[in-house]
Amino acid sequence: MRLTTKGRYAVTAMLDLAIHAGEGPVSLADISERQGISLSYLEQLFAKLRRNELVRSVRGPGGGYQLNREQRDIDVAQVIDAVNESVDATGCGHSGGCQDGNTCLTHHLWCDLSSQIHDFLSQISLADLMTRKDVKTVAERQDREQLASFEDSLISAKVTA
Amino acid sequence: MRLTTKGRYAVTAMLDLAIHAGEGPVSLADISERQGISLSYLEQLFAKLRRNELVRSVRGPGGGYQLNREQRDIDVAQVIDAVNESVDATGCGHSGGCQDGNTCLTHHLWCDLSSQIHDFLSQISLADLMTRKDVKTVAERQDREQLASFEDSLISAKVTA
DNA sequence: TAAAGCCTGACTGAATTAGTTGGTTAAATA
DNA sequence: TATTTAACCAACTAATTCAGTCAGGCTTTA
């Protein structure tokens, strides 16, 4: 099982996309600012998300990314799979060749755990996450912060002008 | 959440210990041979397991390790915690300071997942694992292999003598 | 007293993460 | 049409972790 910031970043970014879906394509620069993830790292993640057809892109000014399906048809497991290539606790890729060709003593335990985790994450869609109170609260805070820093940049632009 | 060969090795070794509990202390050399884990790596893992009071050691010739509790009182989560220091999917250690001091958008999701995994693993004891058919099958194979390689070494000792 | 075991710490190669740098291409707008 | 915006792409890198080795201890008991 591989669950690092990589997968967390991907899910966070996808949720940000879902939250701001009503405002047209969302640029990676916006996501970067709101979620505190480096722009170029986001580019790498979205390349994979796009190859897995979870998002579609709109190029040029005013462009950005959009979800490629309904929010309830994208679950967390799909997003993590897309960037991690595999969500697997076995280490032998379920093949059973963990101990020079044979299955190791605990092979089946890790198989069970893998499917447990996968089941859990695949039952949670972006739509589900959006309805959560804690998600709403954090999203509102992030929007406020982004607006504030935008206004700041307007002021400093005026000062330097 | 951190689940790598490290935790898997630890659980495998503990299960080996449980299986061969009837034969007195089990040496790391035996575990190393049966489970295909390097001896010095096992030493590192068992140092942590001992500090966490999951095993006790018997020194001197014929010595080795033994479980420090009943098999049903040692669960998989305890073993993984002992060698990994933490089994946590959040990345902020449940503190909520994931996004420069504030909680990130998906913080609670990872909290939920962490406890899901922990619950699953803490409900499986070494005693539970021992009753599994797949575990028994693999254990028998490993014992046969070890015996075979021991007999081989006897023969080659005779030849060189 | 020596063999067999444990303990410690320092070190290493490989892989992965989390980026950075420096471009290019496509589309909208001025 | 030139410029700007933002996606796209590829190579590189610093830091970390994993998995394991190595060297040299120290303890216990046959």
From TrEMBL, chains A, B:
<dbReference type="InterPro" id="IPR010242">
    <property type="entry name" value="TF_HTH_IscR"/>
</dbReference>
<dbReference type="Pfam" id="PF02082">
    <property type="entry name" value="Rrf2"/>
</dbReference>
<dbReference type="InterPro" id="IPR036390">
    <property type="entry name" value="WH_DNA-bd_sf"/>
</dbReference>
<dbReference type="InterPro" id="IPR000944">
    <property type="entry name" value="Tscrpt_reg_Rrf2"/>
</dbReference>
<protein>
    <submittedName>
        <fullName>Fe-S cluster assembly transcriptional regulator IscR</fullName>
    </submittedName>
</protein>
<keyword id="KW-0238">DNA-binding</keyword>
<dbReference type="GO" id="GO:0003700">
    <property type="term" value="F:DNA-binding transcription factor activity"/>
</dbReference>
<dbReference type="InterPro" id="IPR036388">
    <property type="entry name" value="WH-like_DNA-bd_sf"/>
</dbReference>
<dbReference type="GO" id="GO:0003690">
    <property type="term" value="F:double-stranded DNA binding"/>
</dbReference>
<dbReference type="GO" id="GO:0005829">
    <property type="term" value="C:cytosol"/>
</dbReference>
